[in-house]
Amino acid sequence: MSENSTVTACCLIIGNEVLSGRTKDANLGWLAERLTDMGIRMAEARVIPDVEEVIIDAVNEAREKYTYVFTTGGIGPTHDDITSLCVAKAFGVEIYRNPEAKALLESFIPVERLNEARLKMADVPVGSTLIENPVSKAPGFQMGNVYVMAGVPSIMRAMFDGLAAGLVGGKKMESIAVASYLPEGTVAAPLGEIQDGHPNVEIGSYPFFRAGNFGCTLISRGTDMDELEAVAEEVRQMIIELGGEPINEDLITPAEVTNEKDY
Fold first, then answer.
1. pTM for this one?
2. Are 15 and 76 in contact, with CB atoms under 8 Å apart?
3. CA-to-CA distance for 198 and 226, rounded, in angstroms?
4. pLDDT (tens digit, 9 = 90+) per residue, 105-156?
């Protein structure tokens, strides 16, 4: 894979408990940041239920479309933990009790507690490679370009840290931010024209509220720093032409960013 290739990823967050709101996902943001630092663009994320056909379809769609697919959740001991089985079906292979995974469970769980439900966590697709779990031993696995990890954040992060060295990234995304006290509705049309002129750059607008005034930070993202500098200069000139003043993005603290809109 060349350095200039666009390397993409999809995250499938699996679990009825996330869709119901009972469990708050804490994995996606962390994973996206790690991948971005590696030159891997998180292109899509989905939250899907513990439904066999939905998981199978989502895995097959994502693995055909993206460089890497990461799943979180659904590899525990209960009846609704069906991710391993579904990934096996997506690849058209059987599931089996992996001896290495079984030995890991036996080393961690007392024999009197190691029932069939817990042993299910050693069942993985034929042809898969185990992903180490240094926290609670029950492993994840890799099947092709699909990486199956736990939903518990501390375990997921430990699993990812172990597999990250095997991922190949592309050219790292860079960003330049320019802020002003102009509301989004004022900059929207000319900003769209700048975006149209630079299809290889992503331009986003992020509103903030400070000292009683609304404004927005305009962030340009891409892999070509020269083009990003050119876009940032166009944005600065746009702000000036609209009667505003470009300000240092660092002056806007995270606490001031808001979802409120002043159109």
1. 0.83
2. no
3. 12
4. 999 999 999 999 999 999 999 999 999 999 999 999 999 999 999 999 999 9
